[in-house]
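Minutes, project check-in
Item: structure for the 366-residue chain
Input as provided by the requester:
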Amino acid sequence: MKKALFIDRDGTILIEPKTDFQVDSFEKFAFVPKSISNMARIFHELDYEFVMVTNQDGLGTDSYPEDTFWPYQNKMLEVLESEGIKFDEILIDRSFEHEGLETRKPGIGMMKSYLAGEYDLANSYVIGDRATDIKLAQNLGAKAIFIGHENPGGAALSTTSWDEIYTFLTRPTLRRATVQRSTSETDIRIELNLDGTGQMDIHTGLGFFDHMLEQVAKHAKLDLTIHVKGDLHIDEHHTIEDTGLAMGEAFLQALGDKRGISRYGFFLLPMDDVLAQVAIDFSGRPWTVWDGAFRREKVGDMPTEMFYHFFKSFSDTSKANLNVKVSGENEHHKIEAIFKAFARSIRMAVARDLTDNTIPSTKGIL
C-alpha cells in the first residue's frame, strides 16, 4: 500500500507572515529553515508520496486576488522541483473559516480519494503548524507531525526542526524513556533520548559523578537528564547505586525490543598514561566483568569502590553484559577513560541500521 505525507504550506514549507497570513509578495516569501533540504532527503530516501494540503482564505476574492498568490506558489514549486521534490497532488481550499465547508481543513472533503483503500493511512502523516492539521490527521486516520513551540497534543511528534522530522520519519520509533525512582534513600528522575545530540542536565549532588555522567551524554551522543536527591548526609553509596539502577532501567525501556540495533559495542580508549577497554552487549542478560584497581580512596567526592558498583547496577537493570578493563597510573584518568570508553561502546551498540529492522539474535528475542 502507498504511504503519503500530507504537507501544509504556510508555516510548514514557507514562513507564514504574522501580519495578514498571506504570502503575496517577495518581501514575504521565505522558506522555513531546512525545509527544502530535509524534504529533499525524505522525498528521495523514503517511500512517501507528497501531497500539499492548504487553506488559502478567500483566494480569488478581493481580499486575496489570484495574481497575488500564484507567482509565489509557482516560485515555491520551482525551487522545490530544482531539488527533485514533486507533489503528487496539490489541494487548495479557497473558502473562509466561517463558511464551514467540508473541503477546508480539518475537513477531508478534498481528500476522499485517499480513503479508497490504496493508502496505508495509519502509517501516513499530516505535517503542519496548526491544531487543525492534527485534527485533519485524526479525521484521515493518519498520524500528525506538529511544527511549533506550543504542542496542542495529539501529535506523534512535536518539533520546531525539520531535521527532527527527517530523523523521526527515518526512525519512527522514538527511543526515549523517563524513569522516576523514589525510595526512602533517594529520589531520582532520568530522561533519556538515545537519538539525541549530547544535550545534558545532570545534578546528582556529587561533582565528580556529574562530570563522569556528562562524559556519557557527550560521547554517546545521548540527551540525558539526571536529577538526584540522595541521602548524602549518610554517605554517597545510595546516590551512586540508585542512579546506576535507574539509568540502566531507562536504557532498557528506550531500547524496546531492540530491533535494528547493533547490539554489541566495544571501544579501546587511551588517555595520557591510561588505556581503558570497555565492551557491552545489550543481550537481555546482566553480567559484569571488572578488571581495574584504584590506590586512592576517593577521586573528587566519589569513593573509588563505587565505580564498579555503579557499572554493576547499570548492567543489572539494563540487562546488559559489561566488560571493563583499565591500566595506568593516574586515578582520575583511569576512571574518566572508563566512562568515555563506556559511552563510545554504548554509541556503537545502540546505533540502528535503517536497512535492517530485525532483532539481532537467532533466538528472535533479546
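Outcome recorded: The mean pLDDT is 95.
No further action items on this chain.
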